[in-house]
Amino acid sequence: MYPSYYGNNPLFPRKQDFEVIVKDEVVGMGVVCRRAFAKGEVVAALAGEIIHDIRQHSLQVEPGIHLYDIHFSGYFLHSCTPNVELDMKSMLVHAVRDIHPGDYLYMDYAQTEDVLYRQFPCSCGSENCRGWITGRKEQLVECMPDILADLPADKTIR
Ligand SMILES: [Zn+2]
């Protein structure tokens, strides 16, 4: 899935194993698997452009350093109960649950990101869904007007 000038790491994602497709109009593009991965298995090695700003499809390597991979990992979807975890030091993706053909790859964006390009409401449906997704080091900001609007008139936030 990566251009040939990235090299030929055998762990790079292969076209026969994954496909980037539009999941639906709400979440947009996702990466769907065409083969199974067992829990604990390495799903793929990542590559991309190293950038210093946060973009919609970038993943944080460390503060100020981000991987911009528009071929594969940039399209991982978010779930509060993910099926993959990313090790941004080794650039490896591991399955944390069994993954079946037809499953989308789901990471927890707060696993890698201190600050998100954009916070968003989550409807992943998992029991521990956080409802509103932020980076691991940022406050709930954009949802505050909604929270305020939902408060009964006799309650105020000081
Ligand atoms: Zn969720």
Keywords:
158 residues; mainly beta; Beta-clip-like; three-stranded antiparallel beta sheet; 7% helix; 28% strand; binds zinc ion
Which parts are unreliable, with pLDDT below 50 for 5 consecutive residues or more? none
- CATH-level-4 superfamily name: SET domain
* Biggest sheet, spatial arrangement of strands: 3-9-8
Instruction: Return the domain count.
Output: 1
Number of helical regions:
2
Coarse shape: globular
| Name of the CATH architecture | Beta Complex
According to DSSP, the number of beta strands is 12
CATH class (first level) name: Mainly Beta
- The string of secondary-structure elements, in order, is EEEEEEEEEEHEEH
User: Termini separation (Å)?
Assistant: 51 Å
- The CATH topology turns out to be Beta-clip-like
Q: Helix amount, in percent?
A: under 10%
Strand-residue fraction? 25-35%
Q: Mean pLDDT score, rounded? A: 91
Content-based structural category: mainly beta
What composes the largest sheet?
3 strands, antiparallel
Question: Which ions and ligands are bound to the chains?
Answer: zinc ion
User: How large, in whole angstroms, is the Cα Rg?
Assistant: 17 Å
Descriptive report:
By secondary structure, the protein is mainly β. It has a single domain, classed as SET domain (Beta-clip-like, Beta Complex). A 3-stranded antiparallel beta sheet has the order 3-9-8, with no helix packed on it. It has a 3-stranded antiparallel beta sheet with strand order 4-6-5, with no helix packed on it. β5 and β6 form a beta hairpin. The longest helix has 7 residues. The protein is globular. The chain starts with 17 loop residues before the first strand and ends in an 8-residue tail after the last helix. Bound molecules: zinc ion. The site of zinc ion (ZN) has 6 residues, from loops.
